[in-house]
Amino acid sequence: MSQPSPQRLVSGITQVASLPEIYMKIEMAVGNPKSSSKYLADILSEDTALTARILRLANSSFFSFPGKVTTVSQAVTVIGTRQLRDIVLASSIVGVFKDIPEALIDMKSFWRHSIACGVTSRVISTLRRETNVETSFVSGLLHDIGRLVLYKAKPTEMGQLIGKCADSKELLYKSEKEFFGFDHALLGGLLLKEWKLPTRLIETTTYHHAPERAKEYIIETATVHVSDIISNALITGSSGEKLIPPLSDKAWKVLGLEDGSIELITDELDKQYAVAVEFVLSE
Amino acid sequence: MILSSDVKDRGGRALLKAGVELTEKHLKIFKTWGITHIEIEGDDTTTSLQTVINAHPELDAVAQQAAENQFRHTDPDHQFIKELKALWIQRHIKVLAAEI
Question: Which chain B residue's Cα is nearest to A258?
């Protein structure tokens, strides 16, 4: 049986689902050096649910701001404009994939795995003292987005592949490649490209199972690769993969983390995970 | 809160010795230095795990075996994988104990 091209599957999604207008407006405002916190706050205020969540987030342990944040423009200042754009992107994407059949994949479980990967990426970037840790969060959060394209476009085939992997104990991403000729990582990268998201996010998503193939964002891709393995192992939640994927030693070494750092990472992951779940899933 | 082990920076240089009573000022300094984790007295999570294993000694072997399946596609000799697997086993024992 001939399989559709990955590009066609992605086009099928982008024709019916686009990123919300609020994200586009924020993206434009952040790119404009003249826009103020007040202007960003005005855009955000169009969405009251989002506004409430951003205020809760600004007051959470994620940002450890000493005082109480009461207005949206204060929240914009505490969180930071670029970080805010990344956070709005995260919550926007959850909304795009709402109607996937529960029998195929438990969407809460999917997002729990994705959020855990996002938080772990954020923690690793903090340990490495990188500057924009919020972009790391979004890279981790989106790494398996291609799987949602597959669940939406090819539900029957994906159901069969999941069943086959449960019996044979194979890895789902390898079975996808065998069956379709490409895997969810490649599809995810194509979708983010179609949505005109930054190259960094496209590369970390495309190569999260093959980090040694990353070209420009080698450390960022290695971060997501290692975070995926940690979150598959330690947090209840799954995007369909039931077993722990193999670790690329090269990617592990690129990060320069010391032996024993897993305890540091998991302590922080456990602390930040609940806040992130509350923000992304509004739980 | 009293520190139960030395706080070191990434280069291994000691910033604060074990036994010191922590103040707000110490916490601010840790933040500045990028210290995200400290150990304080009375914060011993391994004790509760040991209590679980003492009560249900069979769970240890069950979790070890489950870990072999879960990690079957990873390199068992890799130091990071060894550490991750050990943590997975600890968590899995607690999950199994909660189901009893």
Answer: B10
